Each structure stands twice: as structure tokens, then as C-alpha cells.
């Protein structure tokens, strides 16, 4: 799933007016853009065909204190169990509260459907932004080493956004690293080169200099997952006061879970792990 684009969408939730009209983009450096287009098409195809589910460790360092979770993916969504806060294991009371929270969610089909619906909506938006990469930006090959290529990108002036999500994303410049043999994305980093104003500044703004960084890794043949995500954005939006999205997340220890794993089975997986962990003091 390509949901690692979602942090960019955080700042477009107000549903502000569209900017400009859609237009066909063009690029003088067609070979670099063609390479990115091939990677994007392959990523989207691989994502649509990948039905594997995984269990992994998820450590969120920012905002503080750090929080470490174990996540189990199922066909009905993901189930996560908090293990540590600030590098300290949960107390017995905290662990009991977490177990009860998980149990209540597993027993609540309505809550699961709501969470899955929101997750699928995020996926659709993420896929849309990812697909616009080769049209919205001009790419230049910066470095090539074996099967790895690094390309820098800047906004394509011939591209005109037709949604606020596209408008904000198009203000980015940065770089991508791709595996040319497997046609997969390895890294992407972007910086908000210009500030963004909503309704001429009346509804707020995003400050220039905001950044995001994503690194992916191959956890199994032809299966790539997000291994690291960093976001640092600032601004002020009317009704939302200060907007800040600072994230530092690392995922590791990916292990495939059986096809058809249910929420109840995921709960048991997490409970089994919990039985082997020392409790907090």
C-alpha cells in the first residue's frame, strides 16, 4: 500500500478551492521522466497484485515520547499493540488497558468497517498523488551506480493542478532513488520550496522549508515495504490553529502472516507475544 503519501494530505483536509485547470505536462528530459514513469507504473501494478499480509515492529520517535508497537495486518485492516512508551515497557495496568482496547476493537465489527473505509480512502488518495509524479515534476539523472539511480526533481511548470492535494504536492522539489532492475522506488525526499496560502492566506498557510523523507526496503521477493518515514511541516490554518506534522517512524522485523488471518487470530498473535514479554516496573 502506498499510504506513505498521506502525511502530505494532512494539510489539504480543509477542502479548499482548486488551483488552475488540468493540463498535459511536458518534459525536456524525457528519458529521466520515462524512467520514473516506468517505476510508478510498476509500483502501482505490484501494489494492486500484492495480497500478502505482514507482522512488523513500528517505532514512532516523534512526537515524543517514542511509542513502539507490534502491528499485524489482516484482510479487514491492521491491529496494533503498544509495547513500549519512551523505551520503557508498559506497566501491568497499561498492558491490561491495551489488551482491553484491542479486545473491544476486535469485537466491534462497525469500528473495523469504519477504520477499513478510512484506510482504503487514504490508499486511493495516495495512489493518485503517486501516479502524478512523472507529469507533475521534471526529473534529472544525478547519479547511477549499478542497478540504483538517483534522480532530482523540480515542479514542472507545464503541469496545472486540479485539486488542493495536487497543488500542495506540486510545490515540492527533491530527489528519488530507484532500483532500475526491479523498477521499484527505494527512497523519496521532498522539500516545500514555496509557502502555500489557503484562500489568499485568509484560511491559513504552510511555511516554506517543510520536508518529508521515505525509505523502502524489500522484505520478500517483489514485496517492498516502508522502512522509514520522516515528516517536518509547519503552518497555521484557520480553525485548526497551529498545524504541525513532525514524524519519525521506523518499521522493521517484517514477517509474513498466513493468508486469511482474521482479526481474532491477529489478537491471539499479539497476546502470545505479550505473554513472553517482561512487564514494566
Instruction: Please state the overall shape, judged from the principal axes of the Cα atoms.
Output: globular
In DSSP terms (H or I, runs of 4 or more residues), the helix count works out at 7
- Give the domain tally: 1
Strand content: 35-45%
| Oligomeric state | single chain
Low-confidence stretches: 4-28, 238-244
- Taken in chain order, the helices and strands follow as HHEEEEHHHEEHEEEEEEEH
Give the beta-strand count.
Answer: 13
Largest sheet: 13 strands, antiparallel
Structural category = alpha+beta
Round the mean pLDDT to the nearest integer and report it.
82
Fraction in helix = 25-40%
How far apart, in Å, are the first and last alpha carbons? 38 Å
CA gyration radius, whole angstroms: 20 Å
Describe this structure in words.
The protein has helices spanning 6-9, 30-49, 92-107, 109-131, 133-136, 164-169, 263-275; strands spanning 53-62, 67-74, 77-85, 88-89, 137-145, 148-155, 172-179, 184-192, 196-198, 204-206, 211-220, 223-237, 241-257. Helix 3 (92-107) runs antiparallel to helix 7 (263-275). It has one domain (3-275). The radius of gyration is 20 Å and the shape is globular. Strands 1, 2, 3, 4, 5, 6, 7, 8, 9, 10, 11, 12 and 13 form a 13-stranded antiparallel β-sheet that branches. Residues 4-28 and 238-244 have low confidence and may be disordered. 31% of the residues lie in helices and 40% in strands. It is of the alpha+beta class. It contains 7 helices and 13 strands.
Amino acid at each position: 500500500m502506498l499510504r506513505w503519501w498521506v502525511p502530505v494530505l494532512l494539510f489539504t483536509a480543509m477542502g479548499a478551492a482548486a488551483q488552475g485547470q488540468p493540463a498535459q505536462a511536458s518534459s525536456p528530459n524525457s528519458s529521466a521522466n520515462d524512467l520514473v514513469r516506468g517505476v510508478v507504473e510498476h509500483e502501482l501494478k505490484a501494489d494492486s497484485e500484492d495480497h500478502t499480509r505482514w507482522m512488523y515492529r513500528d517505532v514512532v520517535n516523534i512526537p515524543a515520547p517514542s511509542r513502539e508497537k507490534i502491528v499485524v495486518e489482516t484482510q479487514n485492516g491492521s491491529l496494533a499493540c503498544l509495547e513500549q512508551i519512551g523505551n520503557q515497557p508498559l506497566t501491568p495496568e497499561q498492558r491490561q488497558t491495551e489488551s482491553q482496547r484491542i479486545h473491544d476493537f476486535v469485537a466491534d465489527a462497525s469500528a473495523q468497517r469504519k477504520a477499513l473505509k478510512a484506510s482504503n480512502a487514504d490508499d486511493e488518495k495516495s495512489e493518485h498523488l503517486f501516479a502524478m509524479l512523472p507529469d507533475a515534476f521534471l526529473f534529472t539523472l544525478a547519479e547511477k551506480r549499478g542497478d540504483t539511480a538517483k534522480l532530482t526533481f523540480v515542479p514542472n511548470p507545464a503541469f496545472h493542478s486540479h485539486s488542493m492535494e495536487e497543488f500542495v504536492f506540486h510545490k515540492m522539489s527533491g530527489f528519488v532513488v530507484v532500483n532500475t532492475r526491479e523498477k521499484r522506488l527505494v527512497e523519496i525526499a521532498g522539500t516545500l520550496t514555496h509557502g502555500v496560502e489557503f484562500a489568499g492566506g485568509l484560511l491559513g498557510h504552510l511555511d516554506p522549508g517543510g520536508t518529508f523523507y521515505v525509505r523502502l526496503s524489500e522484505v520478500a521477493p517483489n514485496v517492498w515495504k516502508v522502512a522509514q518515514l520522516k515528516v517536518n511541516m509547519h503552518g497555521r490554518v484557520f480553525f485548526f490553529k497551529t498545524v504541525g506534522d513532525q514524524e519519525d517512524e521506523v518499521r522493521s522485523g517484517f514477517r509474513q502472516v498466513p493468508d486469511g488471518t482474521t482479526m481474532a487470530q491477529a489478537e491471539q498473535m499479539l497476546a502470545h507475544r505479550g505473554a513472553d514479554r517482561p512487564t514494566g516496573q
